């Protein structure tokens, strides 16, 4: 059987081809799955998609009409998939429920320290042989307070690093993580976390109840010199509200690896035609803001685990097995 994989990065292609070798043929495309590209999947029973694929009603209808029966998403998040429509169409949908939490947690800290110590500005200066220190002053992390929204596997890994820095730990989640409590984390309400934290890092999944969890009200409560980091999902932050606060000169730094309107932008080269998103363009003009391209997960270790699990999900489907990775429990069909 040949599998069609959408949205494959150049670094990923040899890893995917090697993982599927001897099991299935795989055709890797660098284009993302959208309404325009969905017809390419005609005749492929199994497709694999990336986190920025659009699997809405129209795309799923096109896939089903073309004979697709199984979608293997190469990510943990699945807010881009209309699962109700997929189930109605009899599609099997699986995701990667777990991969290295350290990849994202370590990158979140990379963002935090980069904006705190003004690394990008310093690097740009020294490339021009400007070695002044004006405007580069940061702050020690030791003794300051970090607020972690979401203390699952990634949030816990982030907290362990914060503990190593010697920080005071505040957490918020629907359920407490005993490992974080053991590290000294105090669970509080969101408003208290926002008000007391010098660094706020987001590690909650995107659900309707968490969309814009960082809204105008939350931003208003935060310290003027706080650092805000988001390495989870872009829509956790109301970007328009954030831009408004940044225009007022607030926040020591903002590190964003995700953006709520990143589909059609991130993972693509827009350097020639430019970006038409005025909000993103404005966001990136602030010297205390660092935006990266949804790369927190992008390590050899994490991507390798993602691909390994994707192969397992495909094998489970073809051999009639189920696992905890299946999101839509359509009846698998043995080929």
TrEMBL record:
<comment type="similarity">
    <text>Belongs to the D-isomer specific 2-hydroxyacid dehydrogenase family.</text>
</comment>
<feature type="domain" description="D-isomer specific 2-hydroxyacid dehydrogenase NAD-binding">
    <location>
        <begin position="110"/>
        <end position="296"/>
    </location>
</feature>
<dbReference type="GO" id="GO:0008720">
    <property type="term" value="F:D-lactate dehydrogenase (NAD+) activity"/>
</dbReference>
<dbReference type="InterPro" id="IPR058205">
    <property type="entry name" value="D-LDH-like"/>
</dbReference>
<protein>
    <submittedName>
        <fullName>2-hydroxyacid dehydrogenase</fullName>
        <ecNumber>1.1.1.28</ecNumber>
    </submittedName>
</protein>
<dbReference type="InterPro" id="IPR029752">
    <property type="entry name" value="D-isomer_DH_CS1"/>
</dbReference>
<keyword id="KW-0520">NAD</keyword>
<dbReference type="InterPro" id="IPR006139">
    <property type="entry name" value="D-isomer_2_OHA_DH_cat_dom"/>
</dbReference>
<dbReference type="Pfam" id="PF00389">
    <property type="entry name" value="2-Hacid_dh"/>
</dbReference>
<keyword id="KW-0560">Oxidoreductase</keyword>
<dbReference type="InterPro" id="IPR006140">
    <property type="entry name" value="D-isomer_DH_NAD-bd"/>
</dbReference>
<feature type="domain" description="D-isomer specific 2-hydroxyacid dehydrogenase catalytic">
    <location>
        <begin position="8"/>
        <end position="327"/>
    </location>
</feature>
<dbReference type="InterPro" id="IPR036291">
    <property type="entry name" value="NAD(P)-bd_dom_sf"/>
</dbReference>
<dbReference type="Pfam" id="PF02826">
    <property type="entry name" value="2-Hacid_dh_C"/>
</dbReference>
